[in-house]
Every structure is written in structure tokens, then in C-alpha cells.
């Protein structure tokens, strides 16, 4: 029996040459970004500083923001991202795609732009930070956990459902370590 081959990629710094989240968030106001940072540093939110900073910033920016508007602005932003793509990583994506491997994006980036970017690259599935909503507006809360570190590995394991696969994983930071450790072939970009 031949194992299915799965290739899991991080986005920021792995497919792209730099972070994509902060430039996307800046368009919604530096004051709101600063407010989220100050709330975190004031100690209102306990726990992992990186996760708390992201949660507080997203809440400050997107509480009561229309879902359709965020999705449209995310799609437009995704169209600007190819100029940031690493040629060598694009080559790996192309190679996996040509072999018929399943491509999965596992990223801490926002789903509103990660999903369309992944679709344009030919990915089969995307795990990204999704925001909760009610009645057509964002609450500003993250659905589930920030997609970083152990959460990347958990999402990928759940998706694979214990099925035997040959797993390739590509990442560039400590936030990708757990995903890379579970791979048969791991590459730090």
C-alpha cells in the first residue's frame, strides 16, 4: 500500500520573504494597533505574550467589523502578495503539486487573505486564524486558538485523522517546530 504524500507549508517567512499580517492590519488604523499593544503590555491579558498581543490587536481592530468587507479586503490583499513569494519555495510547491501530493497551508496569518492566496497557489486545504462572527459582523475574537506552535501540529494531526502518510513540512520559525517535528521530511527555510 502506497502512502498518500502530504506537504504542509507555513506562510509568513516560508512562502513569503516577510510577515504579511502587520502590513494588512496597518490599513485599519495605527491607533487601534497601538491600543491592542498597550492593552497587552498593561497585563490585562495573561498567558503567552505573542498570542495575547494578537488576540488584543484583532479585537481592537475587528470588533463589530462587517464580515463581507473583511473577506473582500483580504482577497484584494492576497492579490498583492505574489511579489513577496520565495522562488525556491514556489519551486517546492510546484514539485509537490506535479507529483499529485496534497498541499496544506498551516499559518498564523488571517484566513481572509491566506485562503485566497493558498487557492491561487494550488493548495488543497488551509488552516489559518479565523475570526468569530455574529449577525454578519466580526466579534474580534479568534475562533479556537492562534495557529502557531502546538496548534499547527494539532490541526494537521486532526486533518490527517491517523491515516498513514508521508509528511513533508516546511517552516521558518519556532512557531513551526512542532509541525516540523512530526514530519518525515522537515525543511527549515
What's this, in brief?
This protein is 44% helix and 22% strand. With 189 residues, the chain is an alpha/beta fold.
Structural class: alpha/beta
**Main beta sheet:** 5 strands, parallel
Query: Number of DSSP strands?
Result: 7
Using the coordinates shown, work out and report the CATH topology: Rossmann fold
Strand order of the largest sheet: 3-2-1-6-7
Number of helices: 8
Which runs of at least 5 residues are low in confidence (pLDDT < 50)? none
Q: What is the overall silhouette?
A: globular
The CATH architecture can be given as 3-Layer(aba) Sandwich
Q: Which radius of gyration do the C-alpha atoms yield?
A: 17 Å
Q: Strand content of the residues, in percent? A: 15-25%
**On the 0-100 scale, what is the average pLDDT?**
92
CATH superfamily: HAD superfamily/HAD-like
Order of helices and strands: EHHHHHEHEEEHEHE
Notes on the structure:
- By secondary structure, the protein is α/β, with parallel strands linked by helices.
- The protein has a single domain (4-188), classed as HAD superfamily/HAD-like (Rossmann fold).
- Helices cover 44% and strands 22% of the residues.
- It has helices at residues 21-26, 30-41, 49-62, 67-78, 87-99, 111-121, 150-160, 177-181, and strands at residues 4-9, 102-110, 125-129, 131-134, 137-142, 165-171, 185-188.
- A hairpin with a 2-residue loop joins strand 4 and strand 5.
- Helix 2 packs antiparallel against helix 3 and helix 4 packs across helix 6.
- The chain is globular, with a radius of gyration of 17 Å.
- The two termini are 31 Å apart.
- The mean pLDDT is 92.
Amino acid at each position: 500500500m502506497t502512502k498518500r504524500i502530504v506537504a504542509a507549508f507555513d506562510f509568513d517567512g516560508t512562502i513569503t520573504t516577510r510577515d504579511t499580517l502587520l502590513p494588512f492590519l496597518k490599513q485599519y488604523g495605527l491607533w487601534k494597533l497601538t491600543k491592542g499593544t498597550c492593552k497587552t503590555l498593561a497585563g490585562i491579558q495573561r498567558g503567552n505574550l505573542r498570542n495575547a498581543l494578537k488576540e488584543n490587536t484583532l479585537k481592537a481592530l475587528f470588533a463589530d467589523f462587517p464580515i463581507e468587507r473583511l473577506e473582500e479586503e483580504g482577497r484584494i490583499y492576497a492579490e498583492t502578495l505574489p511579489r513577496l513569494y520565495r522562488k525556491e519555495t514556489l519551486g517546492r510547491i510546484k514539485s509537490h503539486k506535479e507529483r499529485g501530493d496534497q498541499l496544506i497551508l498551516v499559518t498564523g496569518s488571517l484566513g481572509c487573505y491566506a485562503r485566497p492566496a493558498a487557492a491561487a497557489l494550488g493548495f488543497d486545504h488551509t488552516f489559518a486564524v479565523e475570526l468569530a462572527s455574529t449577525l454578519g459582523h466580526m466579534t474580534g475574537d479568534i475562533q479556537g486558538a492562534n495557529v502557531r506552535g502546538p496548534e499547527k501540529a494539532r490541526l494537521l494531526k486532526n486533518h490527517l485523522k491517523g491515516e498513514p502518510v508521508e509528511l513533508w513540512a516546511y517552516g521558518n520559525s519556532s512557531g513551526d517546530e512542532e509541525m516540523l517535528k512530526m514530519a518525515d521530511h522537515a525543511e527549515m527555510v
